[in-house]
Design goal:
9 helices, about 325 residues, 10 strands, binds 5'-O-[(R)-(carboxyoxy)(hydroxy)phosphoryl]adenosine, binds zinc ion
Length: about 325
Amino acid sequence: MKDSYILAIESSCDDTGASVFKNEILLSNIVAGQDVHSEWGGVVPELASRAHHQHIIPVVDKAIKTARIDKDQINAIAFTRGPGLMGPLLVGTQFAKAFALANDIPLIEVNHMQAHVMAHFIEDPKPKLPFLCLTASGGHTQIVLVEGPLKTKLIGQTRDDAAGEAFDKSAKLLGLGYPGGPKIDQWGKKGNIRFPFPEPNVAGYDFSFSGLKTAIMYFIRDELEKDPGFIQNNLADLCASIQNRIVSILLNKLKRASKDLGIKEIAIAGGVSANSRFRELLEEYGKKYEWNTYSPRFQFCTDNAAMIGITAYYKYLNKEFTDLSITPSARLKL
Ligand code: KG4
Ligand code: ZN
């Protein structure tokens, strides 16, 4: 079969990404972040849309140049259809449609949450099939049974907040600003796990993080009444304790799913999988329960277009193309 060159676009939240694949080989992966949101304490959708609009052409241009290919060699263009913020998704979708029309090439839609899982197909060694993947991002927390490339089945998810949200909201309570996950991670590395936060009792493979958020909020409020300097004096230990609880909730559910389904190939994905304590505890669980564990390289954990490109490659092989009437979907399901 002839080589395929696929250009992929990611624009679901606050990072503008473009990647180029030659078959399943990643040739370039460019991401432009957006600093405009930090002063607002969270992503402002309108500002994100404008920043995507500014970044998309230079990011695509750089991805094509870094890949050392000619634009005319591209056989297909892929984009994130959802889930995500509507304005940002519209920018990526519209760019991809225009590129497909102008170059007369097929258009491939990609589900962002499936792409986080598919990031494992860029890596070597890849998890052996079937495997379980725990995907934890800013808006979703899912346990997915992966039976093949694109064969992903949702078996558990959060009933309220996502794990990334638990990180971001905790960081806000501690006055650490946005994005909170990486900040809690940095502080937590220097601290000890000594504050006992509760683990919710949720049936099956579903998650709940809103009770933990409330428990952290009341704990900090009560301690601040006794000592106004409580946060400053205990910041590293607070971060270590909070992140340890969030990731142990995730891993205990994975443990249950692994035991019930008899699957010991265990992967993590999504922005939260960049967390150092999560990766460390995954190794510990792996040793204890005889799992083979897989964490993507950091650039494939947080939002990136490489994961969109690898997903698109498998869709290209199946000729799963979409037509130019496609529209984005903010709540696209896995
Ligand atoms: O997958 P992602 O980049 O974007 C979404 O699809 O939402 O995930 C973003 C989430 C944010 O909540 C961010 O705080 C969290 O991932 N995150 C982390 C770390 N890096 C990113 N959480 C904990 N530790 C980290 N090192
Ligand atoms: Zn994501």
